Each structure stands twice: as C-alpha cells, then as structure tokens.
Amino acid sequence: MKLYDLKNAPNPRRVKIFLAEKKISIPVEALDIETREHQRPGFLGKNPLGKLPVLELDDGTVLCESVAICRYFEEMVPEPPLFGRSTLERAQVEMWNRRMEHELLLPVIDVFVHTHPFWVGKREQMPAWGEAQRKLLVERMRWLDRELEGKEFIGVERYDMADITAQVALLTARGVARLPIPEDHRNLSRWWASVSKRPTARA
C-alpha cells in the first residue's frame, strides 16, 4: 500500500492528517509539481486526471479523491470515528464536510490558482474570478465564525472530517492567499487555535 502525495497541497494534506489521527502509518511517495511528475505516463496510468492524492493498494487497486481514501481507512480502522458514530452523526459530518469543501476549500484553491504567480504559464488564470472567490472566502469566514458560537468543533461534538477540511482550507488561505482569520472572528480564532495544537496538525 502506498499514498502518492503532493507536498503542501491541501487535498493530500487532508488524507495525511486523517491518517495521523487514526495513527495509521503507510509509505508515502511525494511527487514534484515543478517537474510535472503527476503528468507523466507512469502516474497517469494510476489516475488519468493527474490529480493527487492517490492510494494504491497491495493488489494494485487505486483509490483517488481525498474523501474516498479517508472513508476507506475509516472502514478499516473505525476508531477514532472521524465520519461520525451514528446515522445522524454521519449525515451531520457529511453535511458540514461538504460545506467546508464548497464554502472554504474550493474558493481558496481558486484564489491560489487564479491570482498567484506560481501558476503563471502552468494554468490558464482568470484573475477576476480569483478576486471574486477571495471576497467569497472572506464572507464565508465570517459565516463560519457565527456558526461556531458555542461549539467546540464543526461537524459534531468531536474532531471530525469537517474540521480537517476547514483546517486545511484555512491553512492554505493563510499561506498562499494571505488571508488569515480576522482577529475579531473570536469563535473561528478559538477553534483554529484548538485544532492547530493537535499533534496531527502538521502531518
């Protein structure tokens, strides 16, 4: 079994934090985006979309998409539960994780791809779209701050997949989009301080 990784990329990081929370250790092979290793025929044979992360099982079966990979490990190692314990909790984590993907993670990726110099010549950039997503991201941080009033975690009353997705999204916003959590967002700042102290935060 092997996990194909892209250093500092948000979706592979979600899987690595998830594995660290489960105390699962597997071989990891990091690909180099600068030399476009993820676009070479050897890797495209595993994932023709050329995206990461990718999990290759011992029998050669390949799983793509970060949440699908995490769900596989959730079934293999149920404790601690990161997708909820009960039917209701699983639905709540699913709801909140999707929200964190659509309202935080995807916008911050768009800001990065469409406004950052790193992508010049690598991807077609639409700066106006990137700036529109930057504004949306600022609004969504304010929304999440309100949602966290009186709550320790995002999905259920324990650290879960929704927290991991939001954590990675806001770390990326802070690093490549220069959008840290505003100081007056007390609830979001409290949550951020808490999840950032977890031993798995730098996985």
Describe this structure in words.
This protein is α+β, with helices and mostly antiparallel strands. It has 2 domains: 2-76, 3-Layer(aba) Sandwich (Glutaredoxin), CATH 3.40.30.10; 87-196, Up-down Bundle (Glutathione S-transferase Yfyf (Class Pi), Chain A, domain 2). It is 52% helix and 7% strand. It has helices at 10-22, 41-44, 66-76, 87-115, 127-147, 161-176, 186-196, and strands spanning 2-6, 28-31, 54-56, 62-64. Strands 2-1-3-4 form a 4-stranded mixed β-sheet, covered by helices on one side. The radius of gyration is 17 Å and the shape is globular.
Give a brief description.
By secondary structure, this protein is α+β, with helices and mostly antiparallel strands. It has helices at residues 10-22, 41-44, 66-76, 87-115, 127-147, 161-176, 186-196, and strands at 2-6, 28-31, 54-56, 62-64.
Helix-strand layout with pairing:
Layout: E1 2-6, H1 10-22, E2 28-31, H2 41-44, E3 54-56, E4 62-64, H3 66-76, H4 87-115, H5 127-147, H6 161-176, H7 186-196
Parallel strand pairs: 1-2
Antiparallel strand pairs: 1-3, 3-4
Helix pairs in contact: 1-3, 1-6, 4-5, 4-6, 5-7
**What order do the helices and strands follow?**
EHEHEEHHHHH
How many domains, as an integer? 2
Q: Could you say which overall geometry the principal axes of the C-alpha atoms support?
A: globular
Number of helices: 7
The percentage of residues in β strands lies in 5-15%
Q: What profile does the largest beta sheet have?
A: 4 strands, mixed
Class computed from helices, strands and strand pairing: alpha+beta
